[in-house]
Design a protein that fits this description.
Helix 3 packs across helix 4 and helix 4 runs antiparallel to helix 5 (about 135-150). This protein has helices at about 40-50, 70-75, 95-105, 110-120, 135-150, 165-180, 195-200, 225-239; strands spanning about 1-10, 15-25, 30-35, 55-60, 65, 80, 155-160, 185-190, 205-210, 210-215. It is built from eight helices and ten strands.
Length: about 240
Amino acid sequence: MLKITNLSKKYPKNPNYSAHDITFEVNVGEVVGLVGSNGAGKSTIIKSVIGVLPFSEGTVTVGGYDIAKQPEQAKKLIGYVPDDHSVYDKLTGREYVNYIGSLYGATKQQKEQTLTDLAQSFGIDTALDKQIATYSHGMKQKICILGSLAHEPALWILDEPMVGLDPQTMKLLCNYIRQYADNKHAVLFSSHNLDTVSKTCDKVAFIKGGELVRFVDLHEQSDIDLDALYMQINEVADA
């Protein structure tokens, strides 16, 4: 579903790559986790993949569509939850989900299902008709998640989605991410929480200094200690 090939990104006036020669795939039915410290390049990779940032080298395809050459077709297949969970504060939750869904061509049935089943599952159904400006940080994250799913995207991308969520909601979101992938979708998400990654992901991409330093298939290496591997990668890279 997602194929990243030799992706490299440089920012203006910076001679160094923020992401360099990144290559991996996310297939239908898979959850792939991006793991790395702050500034490692995870958000740069994600924003390049979704077409927000133009990249310097390489290709990104979503469902066979090139994000640079066929952006409209590719972006329609993506649901995106940003790391800052920005939303339109003056809209109600219901208006926001309907608006985002309409931008992506969601059907009336898809939007209604999101506003009933998912809103109830995430415990936000009673706040749908309240202005988002009145929401707590956690509620804004939830409505952002709902908006990203309104069109049932083939590829769901989440950038640090667990930050600021209470433990119950974190568990719920992890379960839903796994369920969503199992229902013939693909999921890519970044996280600092290795316990969450180990319980949710099929594969893990370790990012350090803008480079993909290790790509682990957790089905093939089910006994791997992600915490120990993370420490080893950072010790080697920082030595």
